[in-house]
Amino acid sequence: MLSTIDDATLMKVAEALGEEEAIKLIENLKNLDETTDDEIANKTGIRLNSVRKILYKLYDHSLVSLRRTRDPKTGWFIFHWKLQPDQLEGFILSQKRRVLEKLDIRLEYEMKHDFYYCYTPGCRRIPFEEAVELVFKCPTCGKPLMHYENGKMIQALAKKVEQLKKELGE
Amino acid sequence: MSKRNDLEHKALQHIINTGFDGILQSDLWRKLGASSREGSRIALKLEEKKLVRREKELRDGRWTYRLYPKRLPAKIDSIADVPCLMCPDNPRCDPSSSISPQGCDKLTDWLLSISKNEAGSLGDS
Fold first, then answer.
1. Distance CA B109, CA B2 (A)
2. Domain at A4-83: CATH architecture
């Protein structure tokens, strides 16, 4: 099958899934047709339990396929793993849809509320309705709450939402 | 992978990388070191597979084709820095629960950073 995903995208997905070890693992997996978790651990130097953890994570997103055989000597199962790069596009699109849904909810919330803030690092912004109940006093540090202008935040968020909608053809 | 398939794959990658601009068929074969006869066959194959679109174009008094990708590759760049991507709290994140996109601190921090960058790029202080 002619895949339309480049290696750079594959590596970025690996990074999102589990940092450096996942990148190493996928790099190893993409050059092989099928391999076992033992072989991956030996070749990459990643601990076997980490290899399995990453592989199951990839399997959850259908990015790898799994075939199980039984070792004739020990009777134990051997798991054979294979990368499925053709599933990558679907994975990216579903993640984009999910992220868009969350950002859309946040955008609506930011647009519908007025926020008050004590401007102390570590304290949270408080919506107007809650600030009234607190008599405009920060519940964490006790400082007075001042109006917080979230216009720039809304602008940046709306831009991102728009970009994702365009990419998803919505 | 056969030589033909390999060339087909390389050609498709090149066409995809040109994005909306497309690439002249003749330029593509030059880049790939293929003959125009071989190249035309591959272009037709890719069109048949509905992977590229061919549009006639007059160049230096001769008719040639410009090849456009039918679908641009999915990129993860636009969401790579959003904390919601692969967030461990995702299964519990819901507008009606205590973990929600409205009150998420990780999302707030990210929003603050992108709004700062945005302001910077606009020359805003």
1. 50
2. Orthogonal Bundle (1.10)
The answer to whether residues B29 and B36 touch, using CB atoms and an 8 Å cutoff, is yes
Which of chain B's residues have a Cβ under 8 Å away from the Cβ of A31?
A: none
User: Which pLDDT score is estimated for A109?
Assistant: 95
Per-residue pLDDT band at B124 (split at 50, 70, 90): very low
Tokens of B45: 């194959």
Stated pTM of the model: 0.72
Tell me the shortest Cα–Cα distance from A165 to chain B, in angstroms: 11
Q: Enter the ipTM.
A: 0.79
Distance CA A153, CA B36 (A): 53
Asked if B80 reaches chain A (Cβ–Cβ under 8 Å), the answer is yes
Q: What DSSP string runs through A3-19?
A: ----HHHHHHHHHHHHH
Q: What are the φ and ψ backbone dihedral angles of A142, each rounded to 5 degrees?
A: 85, 0
Delimit the domains of chain A by residue range: 4-83, 96-168
**Percentage helix, strand, coil, to 5, in chain A?**
55, 15, 30
